[in-house]
Write a structure and sequence with these properties.
six-stranded antiparallel β-sheet; alpha/beta; 13 helices; 462 residues; eight-stranded parallel β-sheet
Length: 462
């Protein structure tokens, strides 16, 4: 009896020591990425699905899996790969249609780090976090992402929870009420120069890396622009041992911070939320021109999510519906996103897609332009009237021309090909329809466009 007890104690002690050694070894083996290496993690614009437009702050695990299944079966071969759980996955009783309820039931660990609500994400039980859900997404050949708010949870400050990795520092020592997010008050600002500030961000990104997170959208970061916290986040990612693509949100990101944001993030919002309203599309065209010089591999100005398909099932803008944009307006939105090489994050519920929506997401020619083009130029723009954007594929010699009628009336859009220095030797192909226009020696190219319509053409000059 005594021998059995001693043996059991010995085995238990060895197990604890081995577990401790393994944890220390894993910590010691975390890769520290070189300065700027993150730009290699998204050499083409990221493409994926985000739960915000269709589920707001209420998405559940089975819905995430259903969208991952659809992406794997229908979109992966076209380059779509990210599956992102958006806002407030750590609140047990959240509801669509408004924030800041008086009784949010947060789920948080002993170090002040939010955890997935188990009633919404059952696989998070037993302190598993998002590890099992990420594993499921990875098993489909896809990548997993989450949304967070910048800063430190108010509940962590109130409870004076310790900051992991910063001995003697508690959450109430690193926060500030200044510049607190006005529209969602879950968190306080982290004061970047205080002891423990970097360690807090290190602790959450170490956890996300252990879960298997591949992309993270950090909200209330770009407008107003929180330079100090962006730098804390960049450092935390670079030392966490896992390449995690960083998206800052929402816009409008100040263009005077273009160099700084390009040195720290993989994608950043040009505008606020884009919904299925024509005014949101025209505003995006109005803003996009100033960001074109900063479109570069690894660092992408972001047009926001794609509000197409079935949205607002339990969302934040209106009732459950298929997008209110007309088919012409949907072509315009997708043409704008693809020729500007914006990240493509689809906001609708993928399993609810109809054939037209799926065709927009799988058009091989438009996605090739999105993936491979360069030298993007806003050739002409007249507010709420028209826009003309060009780009080219230096590998194939193909040149692209997008013409937009932004007005409420039918309009002829004319383009001087001589001014574009295009010398066409072959036909002109409409990328969305596949129609090839007759071969001719165009000098001026013109098309009649319906209100809010566009055309996207490919020319081969070789």
């Amino acid at each position: 009896m005594k021998l059995s007890l001693k043996l059991s104690l010995f085995i238990f002690t060895v197990a604890v020591l081995l577990a401790s050694c393994n944890a220390n070894r894993q910590k010691a083996e975390r890769t520290v990425f070189a300065d700027g290496e993150f730009k290699t993690w998204a050499e083409t614009p990221p493409m994926g699905w985000n739960s915000w437009d269709c589920y707001g702050p209420t998405v559940e695990e089975h819905e995430v899996k259903a969208n991952a299944d659809y992406m794997s079966e229908n979109l992966k071969q076209s380059g779509w790969e990210y599956v992102v759980v958006d806002i407030r996955w750590f609140v047990e009783n959240d509801k669509a249609g408004g924030y800041n309820q008086t009784d949010p039931r947060y789920v948080i660990d002993e170090y002040g780090r939010y955890q997935p609500a188990v009633n919404r994400f059952p696989s998070a039980a037993n302190n598993n976090g998002f590890k099992s859900l990420a594993d499921y997404v990875h098993s489909k050949g896809l990548k997993f992402g989450i949304h967070i708010m910048r800063g430190i949870p108010k509940v962590a400050v109130e409870k004076k929870l310790p900051v992991k990795g910063a001995e003697g520092v508690t959450a109430d020592m690193i926060y500030s009420t200044e510049r607190q997010c006005p529209w969602l008050r879950d968190n306080y600002t982290i004061t970047a120069d205080r002891a423990g500030a970097q360690e807090y961000y290190n602790s959450i990104f170490d956890m996300y890396a252990d879960w298997g997170v591949d992309v993270i959208k950090v909200d209330d970061l770009s407008q107003p622009y929180h330079k100090a916290e962006i730098e804390l986040i960049r450092k935390a990612i670079d030392r966490c041992g896992r390449p995690i693509v960083l998206s800052t949100s929402p816009g409008e990101t100040p263009v005077e911070e273009a160099v700084h944001v390009g040195n720290n993030a993989n994608m950043w919002r040009m505008v606020g939320d884009v919904w299925d309203k024509w005014d949101d599309v025209t505003h995006l065209v109005d803003v996009a021109g100033k960001w074109i010089p900063y479109i570069k591999p690894g660092t992408w100005p972001d047009c926001d999510m794609i509000p197409l398909g079935r949205i607002s099932i339990r969302g934040e803008r209106g009732a459950d519906r298929m997008t209110r944009l007309t088919e012409d307006e949907q072509y315009t939105l997708m043409t704008l996103f693809t020729i500007l090489r914006s990240p493509l994050m689809f906001g609708g519920d993928l399993p609810s897609n109809d054939g037209f929506t799926l065709s927009l997401l799988t058009n091989g020619e438009a996605l090739k332009m999105h993936r491979e083009s360069s030298d993007i130029r806003m050739y002409d723009y007249s507010e709420n009237e028209r826009a003309i954007i060009t780009s080219e594929n230096v590998n194939t010699g193909e040149k692209y021309l997008a013409i937009f009628n932004l007005s409420d009336k039918e309009k002829e859009i004319r383009v001087s090909l001589k001014e574009l220095r295009y010398n066409f030797k072959s036909g002109i192909t409409n990328l969305w329809t596949g129609e090839v226009l007759p071969q001719t020696n165009y000098t001026v190219f013109s098309q009649e466009l319906r209100p809010h319509a566009c055309k996207l053409y490919k020319y081969n000059t070789l």
